[in-house]
Amino acid sequence: MTMDLKRLVYPLLCLMPFTAGAAQFDFQTVVDKAEKLADNDWQAPQQIPRFLQELSYHDYQGIRFKPESSLWQEQGAPFNLMLIPPGLFYQHAVDIHIVQGDQAEPLVFDKNQFSYPNSEIEKLLPADLGYAGFKLTFPFGEPDVQNQFLVFAGASYYRAVGRHNNFGLSGRGVAVNTGLPSGEEFPAFIEFWLEKPKADAKSFTFYGLLDGKSLTGAYQFEVTPGDETALQVKSVLFPRQAIDLTGIAPLTSMFYYGENTLRPDGEWRPEVHDSDGLLVHDGGSGEWLWRPLNNPAALSMDYFATQQVKGFGLLQRDTGFTSYMDPEAHYGTRPSAWVEPEGDWGEGHVVLTQLPTPDETNDNIVAFWTPDSELQDGESYSYSYSVRFGDAELARNPMAQAVDSFLGDGTRIGGGNAKGAVRVIVDFAGGPLAEKDADAPVTGQVTALEEGELLEQFVEYVAELKRWRLSMLVRPAANRPLSIRAFLHEGEQTLSETWTYQLVPGSDVLKVLR
What we know:
By secondary structure, the protein is mainly beta. 6% of the residues lie in helices and 40% in strands.
């Protein structure tokens, strides 16, 4: 699971020249390689020398790319390439090729393209070490200033940002058995092909070969940076064996605490998270569903059924600086990510996996789509989709949105007088609500699940915030989760997305409130 990976702060690293040895190449080349790999038993990638695996964080950060070595900068191309050396988290190298026309040539490692924290590391670094991954840069503002916007490194992980974001959540090529007792597998990209960009290029195309114990995969990526950075993805998967839980287009993020949780002892910041909720759009029902994230006491997995998934994503809706008060982490500028399938993926579920984390250094949130039918060995499966990174509006959600969620004791002043109950507050704004007068007959449709009891609910307009507030008093059944679904409507018109929430009996919030 992602708890095994510390959150990656990518250093400035390096690029190498390439040599002769060109070979014919197109996407089918990658598909054929993936299919051939799947016919054989999985072979773990060759590990880098142990001293590199055991580098301290400080020493690994000290291996720095020399900016003058960026590929394509002297040719006037808007996209420049930097490469990342193996070490610490990155424990095996990947092969990287440059594609020009229909020819692919390998990049050759050159240790002179790096600066080092000390002469001992420089001396021990193998001359044929290879790369762990790559970074792409593009001028978001001034034409002569290159901004990092995309990083591929570590298993099948990648990170991307829009023009106004700082790096935060990650995407992945695929997820395998995430959260299951059998243990998660981490297939890895082992080879990349990068198309040399033209001088007027607005997009950048590259390809990846994925290999893992249970499957292989061929990927084509076309990335277009901007206010929203978009990746168009084509993938073909070849299972080596039947897979219990396959995660398509997975997203990985961090949620430590927020407005809907307790603040850990000793923490002065109001909130700490890269994402604050999961949004799902199901074309079958037409519903937009919002689930605020949580830092659970134990592993939590939620399955949201989709007849025809139109989109899902992990969003950072709360972008105000005062929500975090952290001038170093700038959590308010972390990107949201939204996945949109191409074509009909069929029936399935969006799965939300949440892990407990004691701090903000672990990615403890994973969201992905999984088909209802297990992937079988001997078959191939194609999935095409886009992933966009930017602000939380990139989902184009037309409904009123849940802006804030709060929980309180149902026996406190202002909370209620029902023993064992929880006061739940949800503020909605935008969408159709923006056109409603303050005295409009807006009401809530609330369902208490898991045999819970809805004791009270009402809606009021909060003029100071220009929001509509849904207040609920809910009593969970004994030893059952607090589980609620709610949305706002006026007559037959649905006004808001569906807000849904769940807390298991052992959660810290319920222990304190009850």
